[in-house]
Amino acid sequence: LLNRIDDSAVTNSNSKKEWQPGREIRSICEEGRWYTFSDKTYDYEENTGFISVVTEDDRRDKYTYNPDGTKASATAEYLYGTEWIEENSRTYKYDEFIPGLRIELMMYEDINGNGKMILTYIERKNITRNKDGNITRIEYQYYLYDPGYTEWYDGQYRHTISYGSDGKAIKITNYYFDFDLERWKKESVLSDIIWDRTDGQIIDTYFSEEEFYLNKKNRIKSASLEIPGELNAKIEASYPAEDSFNVAISINDETVEQWVYVTDDQYGSSTSTITHYEENPLTGKIQTYQTVETKTVDAFGRNVNSTIYEEVDNIIDYYFTKKADVTYDATYGYPLEYLYSSSYDGETFENNSRIVLSDYVEVTSGIGSVETDATSPAVYYNLQGMKIENPTPGNLYIRRHGDKVSKIIY
After folding, report:
1. What is the pLDDT of residues 288-334, one digit of tens each?
2. Residue 237: CB atoms within 10 Å
3. Which among 65, 16, 24 has a CA at the least distance from the CA of 338?
4. SS3 214
5. Its pTM surpasses 0.85
6. % helix, strand, coil for the chain, step of 5
7. DSSP assignment letter at 3
8. Distance CA 206, CA 249 (A)
9. What are the backbone dihedrals phi and psi of residue 228, each rounded to the nearest 5 degrees, phi first?
10. 341: which strand partners?
11. Which of 89, 140, 334, 397 could be a cystine partner for 75, CB 3.0 to 4.6 Å?
12. Is 178 exposed, middle or buried, given 0-12, 13-18 or 19+ CB atoms closer than 10 A?
């Protein structure tokens, strides 16, 4: 079921001409022979360049978009004779304050084959904000429904955020719901938080994920970390560049883990190095474990080179490399073929997979028909999140103008 759900949200306010492929064929190489496992064709909206239809064999997906570029709906269909029959559909809702943040997905399916669409899946982020407009709780809910059996929630997660007198978050607690015990349990707690920057719209709460440190509007300098029953530690973070970070986790002033993440270019190429220090139970000596992962991305957003290797005390324990030989169009420069080969532990490279792109069309990318930030009207909300049509001078409001959100006195 989840493999059929496309939850991406597109936001792009720049309008320009660019080339997009009309067809994409993917193949895999097994024992020296190539096998095609995907052959898709793409149609694009005329005014935005967004994908409107993806067709593969006797199935297709159709997409619609909101004026701000976020995905509004998706419909999956299958070909029956000469007629396209709707199989399932998805609708999406987004947060009013954070552009592009999806807060609801609802999926309908014709599970009985009678042409009637039944709600079978709901995915929600329930967001609560305080009087200052800052997020105080996020609750994730996944609801699966099968009328042949019963109804149930397939996992729930909750994050609570507490604020200090200066209006900045000082504590983030992550919970998960234990269905056996039927109660919420703490997963991790960040407290005594000192921020490098914050706007109170905190949606990334897990210290172990890249997004927690790469969030441009909310990123920490330091915090105390508790994993109940397992760990009490200190996190310190620094940011040598906008999309790079250094993180150190220490216990009793002794570093136990370091994470260095460097973004290498504007396309998203990066190098991630995680170093873990642990005592060898046999020798009593501290050993150094290191995992290094690099990826190189081309101007079209595709991975053209990736390497991951693991070391123990500077001795390589595992090494994997995947690279692409890319053919670009001689006139327009767009990619025609990515031929991937891979190698384990320094052995000879062998063919791995292939992507062939063809039938390019020139489209207008971005949202050419949407008003720009400079010309679009500002929208005002009170601190409880209600939209205000006629703001009162002297009152505090949340103001949204294009993709910018701020708190102002009107």
Report:
1. 999 999 999 999 999 999 999 999 998 888 899 999 999 999 999 99
2. 20
3. 24
4. helix
5. no
6. 0, 60, 35
7. G
8. 14
9. -50, 125
10. 323, 351
11. 89
12. exposed
